[in-house]
Amino acid sequence: MKNSSKKCLVTGGAGFIGSHLAEALLRDGHEVIVIDNFSNGRMQNMASFKDNVALKIVEADIRNISDIRPHFEGVDIVFHLAALADIVPSIVTPLKYYDSNVTGTANVVEVSRLSGVKKLIYTASSSCYGIPSAYPTPETAPIDPQYPYALTKYLGEEIVFHWAGVYKMSVISLRLFNVYGHRSRTSGTYGAVFGVFLAQKLNNRPFTVIGDGGQTRDFIYVSDVVEAFLKAASSEIKNEIFNVGSGRPQSVNKLVSLLGGEVTRIPKRPGEPDCTWADIAKIKSMLGWSPRVSFEEGVGKVLQKIDYWKSAPVWTPEAIEEATHDWFKYLAKG
Question: Residues 149, 154, 180, 190: which is the catalytic one?
Fold first, then answer.
């Protein structure tokens, strides 16, 4: 991506990962269009580069195809990151997630086709594997989404590859595992462990650890994820799926020890795996990508910028119980 300047479009470019990607593309000398409806994205995430003359920021919603189509003209590479995230609200309002993550993705792929975009990189989710039967989990593992968010992200991936097959488009899908780092979301329904714990630490509250804290997650630092996007975009490889993770799962207890603080226990939730663990042999071999940031280093980087999470909601066990009521109601077995 550094060898020649490209015109790149990033949907969801004001979000957590999208803003880091847009910043990296600008740093490498590319022209960048960010499309975001700012439902989750924040202008603050682009503060350090929003005045770059090579950047164009468009406030638009991918669900409205006529609004986004003009901005795809002349674009070389599309990075599609815009989506609704979080498990709980997807259970409560599944059609809203379908509208954004499935119909919205179809819109993005279709306008990319009509505009002659050379390559499209889709942001998929490792949640498509559900509760895996194999660890580490390869890209060939069975698909078994446990909740609407996971399903809609997988359906989006299916749309991308269907368009690629029918219309001879060049696409790559990156199935992201547990991404963390600066600018991760500070608002919204109870969700990712880092945002929850950092807000609790800032407010001297105990960390709400699920179960015994022995569950492990394949945490991958955001700069490593951005590098995977750049490798995918610059490669001649097309129409492939790649896991993006560290390949080294870490326990929630390890995270707590690195952050430092007291703990309170909350019930284990249905539909959540005890372990997420990416098999990253394929992306290492085909794209030459490997994670560089250790978990200890990454957590240290996050703590250096912990003030970013001052506006994040502070979750208590009681508030979590209320927020996750529908999770237990609909996903509990029996």
Answer: 149
